[in-house]
Specification:
Length: 458
């Protein structure tokens, strides 16, 4: 019978199956990864059922869905949730009994048999504060993993948003800087001819050359910004750079600086309370509470019951024992004090997280107001003034009052004002990204269509 029971137990055991991973193979596979419009359509049907996407222009919502499908960090955070759930299931299983087998031989025993055989099964009593604290900690581990996932999604989403802004701003700057470079070259050629004719000084030619060099520098920076944006998009989406570089991306209303959100105190408090990092800090505090309850429970003995069987030289005995695992000699006071210190630390970290979130929101709100004021100043002051000078230069050139060099200077000034507008627009988008990162929620755009779907990501 014991042999049969052992065979049945072994038959139900899991079998180890190796699953080696080759980093080179992973790298090769990811190098071949491409954006799949069909997979994105399926994801959008779940995330935003009312959204309509043509499958060609990759807007923010489509890019967000592609990010959820392809980003490796998000996949790892999702796997961590599965790990935490599996650990919770394992934690809920009571510990197995301990089987002790005994045998004894008595030399010259007066009984008919000199042998004694016995066995004891020791069943720990898994109940009370020890079990409750262990299960609570495992449950909170699942919650913490979900908040980690939400934080990873949000961090990656912000990287995606910033990269998309870099690419669009870089493309706009590239077009404006290319026009300025062409105009500055024409201006340089005119002034160079005037210098050769003795009608202009070398100092004037050097000034025009410096202006042209600055335009070339802005052109190079714009190219680098486009490349940086493409690299950031590729990293967030989990695809090679060449895959995203050749695709059309879109941001509806990118050049329109909508009114910034108000600093409503109730909305500010709700945003702080809903941040994944704040909720994670609160979960860690709850875990510290559960750990403290477990250490307090360890002040009392752990009980186990041990029914047994003994065959003693022809006599059958059925003993039963109760075992007590006694607490440490200090009554577990040292471990309790350490758990209380960890709880106090977790509380302080929660306070710091809330304070940091509030400060980040306040700073971001101030940045959105200042950046919009600066953009309005450029659009209402600098650009109209530069355009007036450019139109005036057109009229004066037609009338023969100025030469091509002076006309080119006015036209370059108008294009430079457009670059100033793009710089101010970049500051607005940077401030908006800072605010969204502080709030941990989108403030505008198609991602608002996710609604409860975004909350479901947690």
């Amino acid at each position: 019978m014991p042999a049969l029971l052992l065979a049945l137990a072994l038959a139900g055991c899991a079998v180890y199956r190796p699953a080696p991973i080759s980093p080179a193979a992973v790298a090769a596979r990811r190098a071949e990864t491409r954006l799949e419009a069909a997979a994105v359509q399926i994801s959008l049907a779940t995330l935003a059922p009312d959204a309509r996407w043509d499958g060609s222009h990759w807007d923010r919502l489509a890019l967000f869905a592609a990010m959820l499908n392809g980003n490796a960090d998000i996949a790892a955070a999702r796997a961590a949730i599965d790990t935490a759930r599996a650990a919770r299931r394992a934690t809920g299983i009571a510990p197995g009994p301990t089987l002790t087998l005994t045998s004894e031989y008595a030399g010259k025993a007066p009984e008919s048999s000199p042998w004694l055989f016995g066995g004891v099964l020791d069943f720990p009593i898994d109940a009370g504060g020890r079990r409750a604290s262990r299960l609570a900690a495992a449950d909170l581990g699942v919650v913490a993993a979900r908040y980690d996932y939400a934080e990873t999604v949000w961090t990656t989403r912000m990287a995606l948003t910033r990269a998309l802004a870099d690419r669009l701003l870089g493309q706009a700057r590239l077009a404006a800087a290319s026009n300025i470079v062409a105009i500055r070259q024409r201006q340089f050629d005119v002034v160079a001819r005037r210098v050769a004719a003795g009608a202009a000084s070398r100092a004037e030619l050097e000034r025009v050359r410096a202006d042209g060099a600055d335009a070339v520098r802005r052109l190079s920076e714009a190219r680098a910004e486009v490349a940086t944006g493409n690299a950031g998009l590729a990293a967030a989406l989990g695809v090679p750079v060449d895959d995203i570089a050749g695709r059309e991306v879109a941001w509806a209303g990118f050049a329109v600086a909508t009114a910034g959100p108000s600093a409503d105190p109730a909305a500010r408090r709700a945003a702080i309370a809903g941040r994944a990092d704040v909720l994670k800090a609160a979960t860690l505090y709850d875990q510290a509470e559960a750990d403290l309850r477990g250490e307090i429970a360890k002040q009392y003995p752990a009980i186990s019951i041990g029914p047994g069987y003994t065959w003693e030289r022809g006599l059958v005995k059925l003993p039963i024992s109760i075992a007590l695992v006694l607490p440490p000699l200090d009554g577990n006071r040292g471990a309790i004090a350490a758990a209380e210190a960890r709880r106090q630390e977790a509380g302080a970290r929660l306070e710091a997280s809330v304070a940091g979130a509030g400060a980040a929101i306040d700073q971001a709100l101030a940045a959105t107001l200042l950046s919009r004021a600066a953009l309005e100043k450029v659009r209402q002051g600098e650009i109209p003034a530069a355009d007036r000078l450019a139109r005036q230069a057109d009229s004066e050139l037609a009338a023969g009052a100025i030469d091509r060099g002076e006309w080119a200077a006015a036209q370059a000034g108008a294009r430079s004002a457009r670059l100033s507008e793009l710089d101010a627009l970049a500051a607005v988008h940077a401030a908006d990204a800072q605010l969204e990162e502080a709030l941990r929620r989108p403030v505008e755009g198609p991602e608002l269509a996710l609604g409860g779907g975004l909350e479901g990501l947690k």
